[in-house]
Specification:
With about 325 residues, the protein is of the alpha/beta class. It has a single domain, classed as TIM Barrel. About 35% of the residues lie in helices and about 15% in strands. It has a nine-stranded mixed sheet. Strand 7 and strand 8 form a beta hairpin. The radius of gyration is 19 Å and the shape is globular. The two termini are about 20 Å apart.
């Protein structure tokens, strides 16, 4: 993992301090930027394609990236839909590399190996390949030995439903064998979708066993389950819609805040409108289980942070043998 210039961490440190003083997540550290609602798939647990809309212009996306670069956000994720469907994705990746955050890129494209990955990898810090039964792209596990040779961190992102908990071990095993990591995400019940959320007790027990069997392979912090049972959602992560609007306090409630092309994120978060959004999140009793909102506060715990980031520090050895020491 690359080390950013020391001054680039200052906005994040400022956000951490302000959050500690406020005793709540005023400033986010992770931003999920949905670059498009277009997708190759129609996963039954996802509603992105149920809200179609035009993509922002290249300049519009860059304006938002500059906004994030001024904020405490330390990790920005390019997501969708499928971000590779944007014709300007190469230009956007190169621009994002100049911004003051780490870049995560999530894709589920079956033709991933046919893309100019060597060029894209120069701008990406973390590559997440979304593979699961909903995407019907389990064959992408075969691509992992080639993907891990790229000069970036590779993880599989897999959505687990109540019917696929038993299949999780094979996915973790294949990631571990290839030298990749895995992020396990329970299937959140979104509006306009069926409810596929897994049995939490079974998933927790399964993941605990897999951690022992495949050391340092799973990014998902075990603290997720404690947070879920407490209903402890956090505004320390945010989602940006394909039209440039900030979902706030969260996109599950589909409540939108400002257009980040015209409104400074850091300033807006200190405004009464944002504070009202955080009160709404705290009062929400939906308990949807959306991984991002339940896990982010774990990253402020040193133990949970190490549990989550340890896979990124594993060293690949020749022949795909992993150093778990």
């Amino acid at each position: 993992m690359r080390i950013l210039p020391p001054s680039w961490y200052l906005p994040t440190i400022y956000g951490l301090i302000r959050n500690l003083i406020a005793r709540t997540a005023v400033y986010p550290f992770y931003a999920s930027f949905k670059l498009t609602s277009r997708c190759h798939f129609g996963c039954p647990f996802c509603n992105v394609k149920k809200h179609p809309g035009g993509d922002l212009s290249t300049d519009g996306v860059k304006t938002i990236l500059r906004n994030l670069s001024r904020s405490p956000v330390l990790m920005t994720s390019f997501e969708g839909g499928e971000p590779l469907l944007r014709e300007d994705i190469g230009e956007l990746l190169r621009f994002a590399r100049t911004c003051k955050f780490y870049l995560l890129f999530t894709t589920s494209a079956r033709d991933l190996l046919d893309r100019p990955l060597e060029a894209y990898a120069k701008s990406i810090d973390f590559l997440h390949v979304s593979i699961d039964e909903g995407h019907d792209n389990l064959s992408l596990f075969d691509a992992l030995p080639r993907l891990v040779k790229l000069p970036l961190q590779v993880s599989v992102q897999t959505v687990v439903t109540r019917d696929t908990v038993d299949a999780l071990e094979d996915k973790v095993r294949r990631c571990h064998a290839a030298g990749a990591n895995i992020v396990v995400i329970p299937a959140t019940h979104m509006d306009a979708t069926e409810d596929f959320f897994p049995d939490v007790d079974l998933l927790e027990k399964t993941m605990l066993a897999l951690r022992g069997k495949y050391p340092a392979a799973i990014h998902t912090p075990q603290g997720y389950f404690k947070a879920y049972r407490k209903g402890a959602c956090s505004a320390a992560s945010v989602v940006i819609a394909p039209d440039g609007a900030l979902y706030y306090p969260c996109h599950i409630l589909e409540r939108k805040g400002p257009d980040l092309r015209t409104v400074d994120l850091t300033r807006w978060l200190a405004a009464p409108e944002a504070a009202e959004g955080r009160r709404l999140m705290k009062a929400c009793r939906r308990n949807c289980g959306w991984y991002q909102y339940y896990s982010i506060d774990s990253y402020t715990s040193i133990a949970s942070m190490w549990e989550t980031l340890r896979p990124a520090f594993r060293k690949r050895r020749a022949g795909g043998v992993i150093d778990d020491g």
